[in-house]
Amino acid sequence: MLNKDAVHAIIFQALANVNDERGPDEQLDISPATILFGTDAVLDSLSLVSVIVDVEAAVSEVSGRDVVLTDDRAMSQEVSPFSDVGSLTSYILLLLSEPV
Amino acid sequence: MTTTLKYAGKFALVTGSRRGVGRLITEHLLQHGAKVAGFARGDATFEHSNYVHFQVDVSDPAAVQKGFAALKKITEVIHIVVNNAAVLTSQYAMIMPPAAAQAMINTNLLGTFMVSREASKMMRKTKWGRIINIGSMAASLEPIGDSVYAACKAGVSTLANVMARELAPLNVTCNTLGVSGIKSDMLDQLPKEKIAAVIAGLPLPRFAEADDILNVLDFFASDRSSYITAQTVFLGGVN
């Protein structure tokens, strides 16, 4: 079972992958408070998609179950799971806590 | 005869690779040095040291995802995708069975979308890719009986055009090859007189030859075509 720190690490790695594509002046500040989506987001839309794809793949691989982050349920959450690293972490932990 | 290995070092995925245009394209890619994976509902119909076959029904999104999971065990990269798998039922709309219409949408449109979706995730890593959808003259000629099939084939062009925008920053191009009539199992399903009338009405009134298709395929797939995206090229003068 993945814990909060492990999920954080996966998301941080996905954001680090985005940083790998950016110049030294465009590096993301990666922390639990990093805003992923919305008016203050630090990611453009394609970078956000890349982060979601990387996180989905890594969480699925490590947890051994298919995790889908972009289904109707995610889109209908009162607070978007993609608001920031913290909300995404919470949403992933919620999904993993449910029976397969 | 000398064969140039223009696809050496490339890994391609062809759907509907067992027969017809899909097999033709698969054998062409293999002949020119590519490694090729094939997705098809049935067993492989040929063997080649650089070919690996996966039994995947592209009309089933879960099957496509399982197919890609299996594919990722043998390759981390995919350079070229040819979305060829298609089914055809030609019938007046008023008597077209809904199940046949649904099957065409699932295979021809949803299958193309799912394969492109999963492949583009892999292409994202290498920042190079060619997605080539096999379209049809039906999308333009809109023949009687082909309401859903033609709509699906128009749809794969639109799908390619939108994905071309989304994937352009990743150096992935998306184009559509609109084939005209080529003698194949699929065409054999249609009345001969109907086909003859369609062919006779083309600016170039003959069946397509294998090389007509492969010529455009090579054009879309080449390194030099990095500035060619969101295009549909019809054969035979269809426009």
Describe it for me?
The complex is a heterodimer of chains A (100) and B (239). Chain A is mainly alpha-helical. Chain A has one domain: Orthogonal Bundle (Non-ribosomal Peptide Synthetase Peptidyl Carrier Protein, Chain A), CATH 1.10.1200. Chain A has 4 helices and no strands. Chain A has helices at 4-20, 45-63, 72-75, 85-97. Chain B is of the alpha/beta class and 239 residues long. Chain B has a single domain, classed as 3-Layer(aba) Sandwich (Rossmann fold). Chain B has 8 helices and 7 strands, in the order βαββαβαβααβαααβ. Chain B has helices at residues 20-31, 61-71, 98-126, 138-141, 147-167, 185-188, 192-200, 210-221, and strands at residues 11-15, 35-40, 51-55, 80-83, 129-136, 172-179, 232-234. Chain B has a 7-stranded parallel sheet with strand order 3-2-1-4-5-6-7, sandwiched between helices. In chain B, α1 packs across α8 (210-221). Classes of the chains: A mainly alpha (100), B alpha/beta (239).
- Main CATH class of chain A: Mainly Alpha
| Radius of gyration computed on alpha carbons of chain B | 17 Å
Helical run tally of chain B? 8
- Global morphology of chain A: globular
Give the C-level CATH assignment of chain B.
Answer: Alpha Beta
Distance between the terminal alpha carbons of chain B, to the nearest Å? 35 Å
**Overall radius of gyration of chain A:** 13 Å
User: In percent terms, what proportion of residues of chain A is strand?
Assistant: under 5%
Could you describe the largest sheet of chain A, including whether it forms a barrel? none
CATH fold title of chain A? Non-ribosomal Peptide Synthetase Peptidyl Carrier Protein, Chain A
Mean of all residue-level pLDDT scores of chain B? 94
- Percent of residues in helices of chain A: 40-55%
Oligomeric state of this protein: heterodimer
Structural class of chain B: alpha/beta
Annotation, overall tally of beta strands of chain A:
0
Detail the poorly predicted runs of chain B: none
